[in-house]
Amino acid sequence: MIRRLHTDTNGWVINGTTYDGPAPDDLGGHEASGEDMATHALARGLAWRGGDGVLRFPQDDRDLWKHLRARGLDGSEASERLLELRDVRRICRGEVPLAPGVARAIPGPYQLPGLPYSFPEVPGLVVRHAVTEDLDKVAQATVELGDQPVSCPPDSPCRCTPPEAHAFLALAQEWDKPSHTQLVLEWNQNPLQWELMFHDQDEDMPVSSRTYHLTRERPHWFWREAWKPVADGLVALGFPTMSAIVRGDLDYYTQSLKYHYKATVRRRSRQKTTLDYDLATIPFAGWPARRGLKDDVGVQGVTIQEATEAELPDVIGWLQANRHSRTDISVKMLREWFFLDRSAVLVARVNDVIQSVRTVRERRPTVSSIAQLSTLKDDPDAALTSEAVRRWQVGCGYTKATRFTPEAIYDNPLMQATLAREGFRPLGRRNNGGGGITTIESEADL
Ligand SMILES: CC(C)(COP(=O)(O)OP(=O)(O)OC[C@H]1O[C@@H](n2cnc3c(N)ncnc32)[C@H](O)[C@@H]1OP(=O)(O)O)[C@@H](O)C(=O)NCCC(=O)NCCS
Ligand SMILES: [Zn+2]
Question: How far apart are CA 299 and CA 423, in angstroms?
Fold first, then answer.
């Protein structure tokens, strides 16, 4: 028996021919084994034959999914087809050279006018429709947050290849489908939020069915302001109202949506809460001004000074020179809180020498959120610094301060001393959604 495998001029397998009897003189194609022939039946246009005669095929499920997606299947179709094609890897051992990633638009029920939108208030902050290219980054972020496992869970039959492709494939299946509109909020190309919407045919209105905060530290007013272009887009499409589905166990989140969006509860069950939004009456207020005082605050030799944007590199330099186990996180926080949340960066100095750095921002009009960025140390001036920071906050209009302390640091004696000195009472642990860093929330009257 004569078997020939045919490729196009780029090397992609397109066809196969088998001759049982006499074959024509000009056979064309390449000599092939019985196994090779199976690739033509199964993986037409996906297997590739190089000059060395080796048959190649995407070895990584994510690459295979991208190939399938690029050939016109939607995300969930591509996820299904992928399962049928895994066996081809037994035949084709080599890796296919992948063309550079191509962003595929995800067709959904809504194309919101005004998107992509770049916020003038925060350079680099953009809200736009999602594309398939977002999946890698979002999958990575969900793993870092602990919302998706690092690799296939032990009891799962999914057999993702490699096992670390698990989060990507889960998202590809769940998010990339034409029945849903997917939105991304990103800052300097890094996703902060993913939102999924679909059209409810009976009610003839949009439903926001899932929101994913890839950063948990943002105050809720930030998410509201960053959502305004979406609300404007829905109104422009002729929808005065929207509903949202929230996981039943997230009571905190439901309360927050009622407060920040004037949403009302339509229905509540153990599994989910359905909320209604009147898009015209959401109290959008714009980004608040960064709070600050005209003069530095001084308490017996300790001075509290607000760093300007131009001074941030010096403050970051000081943090890096005085490292602690979480310095990289502190630097990231400093930037995110300063630029995204309009936080003030407070630098405490004694005799002009930096002692400590905190960042303080608005959570609600009279409630601050405060984070310590510098290392904890036995500081003889700690009480004076605490008093200066308290005065600064009161001067800026706050009556209450809140803190989210990582569980791992909470019991540190120096942290406990700081909390006690500043009057913080623990409110409970916070870890919505499964993983990530568990923090202990506490509050203090100022
Ligand atoms: C459900 C979800 C969207 C809620 O998001 P969220 O409101 O940002 O959630 P969090 O409870 O983690 O944090 C929000 C509040 O705590 C504060 N906070 C939490 N951790 C903080 C930290 N480390 N530092 C400072 N503030 C912190 C925020 O400032 C915010 O305060 P505010 O709302 O009073 O202004 C989010 O938990 C998530 O993405 N979960 C996984 C996906 C999911 O289950 N989605 C279903 C939604 S229907
Ligand atoms: Zn898996």
Answer: 18
